[in-house]
Design goal:
The structure is a single chain. α18 (437-448) crosses α24 and α19 (481-495) runs parallel beside α20. The relative contact order is 0.07. The chain folds into three domains: 7-225, L-fuculose-1-phosphate Aldolase; 246-417, 3-Layer(aba) Sandwich (L-fuculose-1-phosphate Aldolase), CATH 3.40.225; 428-665, NAD(P)-binding Rossmann-like Domain (Rossmann fold, 3-Layer(aba) Sandwich). The strands form three sheets. It has a seven-stranded mixed β-sheet. A seven-stranded parallel β-sheet has the order 14-13-12-15-16-17-18, sandwiched between helices. The chain is built from 24 helices and 18 strands. With 673 residues, it is of the alpha/beta class.
């Protein structure tokens, strides 16, 4: 592990203890082999003068909700040291009361809640304290002879603590053990199956000790197994899996329909839509090829903190995936019943990750952030398992200890608070014609309601248009059936399924009479305004059948109920499209897929309405362009955003009992009425 300390970056900050604390915390947080997504905590002790002119000792400790890699000064909660040390003297204290008393001892009521390990930080008699869940050290301890190996490796320079539940009981245990400890002889505390504490009176010395302790473990693992932890799960596994054809690995296709089915089953168990992230990195793929990988993923997490995100075990996703996930749910219920007491609320029964045999891993989460966190944790966990297996066998903490962590009273308290989510949180949408006008507005509205979106268009402006990871931009010619099928599959591969679809791509041909209408104009309109939508339905329906409350909105036109002269090619195609929607509603209703049409009119901030087309249409009605724009009963111009808002309403719960409908959005058109 590389030491990233740079004296130039902290030049002049030596006397600002909190600034030094921020700097070294960020260094630790950037190293995924030390902490992942909110893991670990750090602190610094400081003497300050309060409002009464009195000096008091404070512990600035990482606050809840902050990640070490991005933490800043406001992320540290200032807590009175005398209170923390008095709490350490107590023989018993519930963690809920501990959190309450720690918050009451804060000198800044606007700061975040202090870490649950604040007392532990307080009793370590050094200015700076660092705590990580270092992969190498935890992997070493998660073996049958882990404690003996650690003792032999570090000797008396570390204090070894057998696994104890985090919170007050851990702080109390270390408080008791530390009574007879010569702290000057120690470089670290190693909590078996949990992590590492280092400490010193300067930020640099504490950081240096952490890097050294972890590097010693990494070197030992490499010397013993010829394996090492690497970024992006690029661990060398030649000793674990030999004779695998690398071309075979590269050619293995992800079973997209199985992933969509798994997502549906997991979402049903969770009771909420879930996103999916798959990984087929070299190490994950090779782990998935181990003969005993199904048994290995049933033993427990890398470190207990991960169980809150990952649940105790993964699911082995072999055919039939729905039955496998149902079996996971039954096993989880048995695990809960076996370990629970009457006052504990059971969590949902859905898995959070799994292994696709011979392919890779899959993670399930409510948001892109959640699913990325789980996927990262699993990548690190699988590396640790492979290394531990070479050391004699993967052996994490007991089921009872895992349960105690998963059902920690602090986590149960969070459940009772509940949390609100956006309407389309966890849902996956696809929008065609997404680079401008109604399509772009639909993408924006779906994002605002929490969905992730595949934005399809063949316009060169699509690239770089959406900068959020919640959108994948797919350059696609919707008149090419193969292009469309590939785009649908890419959507499923990236997000795990398909729930909502806005079939919007369209084209308004020249205003030619039937007498002068050219064949190519007629064919182009039918191809883009009708056939492309049929091809999209053909490709999407199999995945929509596995969707969560699946719904389709097709963008029609006022020209269906009220066509105008010079619009034969457009009106006929849109009329056929509406008829296609009605048939689709009848065919797909039994699968719970709703199909509705929205008929806009006079939406002029779209690519369809070029200046030339707008002027031509206005002249046909004998109106000025401005009068044509507001030629409706409400005398209002309809915008793309207005249409997008209606589209999302039709896709949403308000229309859950409606299918096969045609909904106008035209400001009130007298010819339609």
């Amino acid at each position: 592990m590389q030491n990233q300390w740079d004296d130039q970056e902290v030049d002049g900050l030596e006397h600002d203890l909190l600034a030094m604390r921020v700097y070294s915390s960020q260094l630790l947080g950037r190293e995924t082999g030390l902490v992942l997504h909110g893991g670990g905590n750090t602190s610094v002790k400081s003497t300050e003068v309060n409002y009464f002119g009195e000096s008091e000792e404070l512990l600035y400790v990482k606050g809840s909700g902050w990640d070490l890699d991005t933490i800043e000064r406001p992320g540290f909660a200032p807590v009175k040291m005398d209170t923390l040390l008095k709490l350490a003297e107590l023989e018993t204290l519930t963690d809920v009361d501990m959190v309450r008393l720690q918050r009451a001892a804060m000198t800044d009521p606007n700061a975040p809640n202090p870490s649950v390990e604040a007392i532990l930080h307080a009793i370590i008699p050094y200015t700076f304290v660092d705590h990580t869940h270092a992969d190498a050290v935890v992997a070493l301890s998660n073996t049958e002879e882990g404690e003996a190996r650690i003792k032999a490796l570090y000797g008396n320079r570390v204090l070894i603590i057998p696994y104890i539940m985090p919170g007050f009981i851990l702080a109390r245990a270390i408080f008791e053990r530390s009574r007879n400890v010569n702290w000057q002889e120690l470089d670290a505390i190693i909590l078996l199956n949990h992590g590492v504490f280092t400490f010193a009176d300067t930020a640099k010395d504490s950081y240096d000790r952490m890097i050294d302790i972890v590097s010693v473990a990494e070197d030992y693992l490499y010397d013993t197994t010829n394996l090492q932890f690497c970024d992006s799960s690029s661990i060398s596994l030649s000793k674990i899996v030999s004779g695998i054809d690398k071309g075979d690995i590269a050619s293995t296709a992800l079973p997209l329909m199985d992933i969509a089915k798994a997502r549906k089953a997991v979402s049903d168990l969770k009771g909420l839509p879930m996103l999916v992230m798959t990984s087929r990195s070299t190490s994950v793929n090779q782990f998935a090829r181990l003969e005993n990988c199904a048994e290995l993923i049933s033993r427990g997490p890398l470190t207990p903190d991960h169980v809150i995100r990952t649940k105790p075990t993964g699911v082995f996703l072999q055919e039939p995936v729905t039955a496998v996930i149902d079996s996971f749910a039954r096993n989880y219920q048995q695990y809960f019943d076996h370990n629970s007491s009457d006052d504990v609320q059971c969590l949902d029964l859905a898995p959070r990750w799994g292994i696709i045999p011979k392919v890779g891993s899959v993670a399930f989460g409510r948001s892109l952030k959640d699913v990325k966190i789980i996927a990262d944790i699993i990548d690190h966990t699988l590396q640790a398992i492979l290394i531990a297996e070479e050391l004699g066998g993967w052996m994490p903490i007991s089921e009872a200890d895992i349960f105690d962590m998963e059902y920690w009273e602090l986590e149960q308290a969070k459940l009772k608070k509940g949390s609100a989510s956006l309407e389309f949180q966890g849902k996956i949408a696809l929008v065609t014609g997404a680079a401008s006008g109604i399509g772009r507005a639909c993408v924006d509205e779906l994002l605002a309601k929490g969905a992730v979106v595949a934005a399809l268009d063949n316009s060169p402006t699509l690239e770089g248009l959406f900068t959020t990871p919640s959108v994948i931009s797919i350059c696609c010619d919707v008149t090419d059936a193969i292009d469309l099928a590939d785009a649908v599959e890419e959507t499923v591969a990236v997000f795990g399924g398909l729930d909502l679809m806005v079939s919007n791509a369209g084209y308004f041909p020249n205003g030619d009479s039937i007498e002068t209408l050219k064949e190519e104009s007629w064919d182009k309109s039918l191809s883009l305004n009708l056939t492309s939508h049929k091809n999209l339905l053909t490709s999407a329906i199999p995945f929509l059948k596995q969707g969560i409350d699946p719904a389709i909105v097709i963008i029609g036109s006022k020209n269906v109920p009220a066509p105008g002269p010079g619009a034969a090619a457009y009106s006929v195609a849109k009329a056929g499209l509406t008829q296609l929607c009605r048939v689709a509603a009848m065919e797909l209703g039994e699968f719970g897929i709703r199909v509705n049409v929205v008929h806009p009119n006079a939406v002029f901030d779209t690519a369809v309405w070029t200046e030339r087309v707008l002027k031509s249409r206005a002249e046909q009605y004998g109106l000025s362009v401005q009068a044509y724009k507001t030629n409706n009963l409400l005398k209002q111009e309809v915008s793309s955003k207005d249409v997008a808002s209606l589209v999302c309403t039709v896709l949403g719960d308000s229309f859950k009992m409606t299918t096969g409908a045609q909904v106008p959005i035209d400001g009130g058109n007298d010819r339609v009425i």
